[in-house]
Design goal:
mainly alpha
Length: 80
């Protein structure tokens, strides 16, 4: 996901969100949540959770990429 260089006011972000289809907004939320999970699961004990989150991220990115390839989310793109 590419973030703007200038901070975007909340009301502008809400207007942008209203212009997007609901399934794309849901996929974006799911992708960001999965990317955070992937980045936090780094030990061998959390391997299964990481694989599950990667699959979830992949499914969400398929929806986002079909709508706009610039919306793809990677685990490195999400800062905690």
């Amino acid at each position: 996901m590419t973030l703007p260089k200038v901070p975007m006011p909340d009301h502008i972000a809400a207007l942008v969100g209203l212009a997007m289809p609901p399934e794309v907004m849901a996929a974006e939320d799911d992708a960001v949540e999965a990317a955070i999970t992937v980045s936090s699961c780094r030990t061998p004990y959390t391997r299964e959770a990481r694989e599950w989150a990667l699959a979830r991220l992949h499914r969400a990115n398929k929806v986002l990429g079909a709508y706009n390839p610039g919306l793809l989310v990677t685990p490195k793109a999400v800062a905690r």
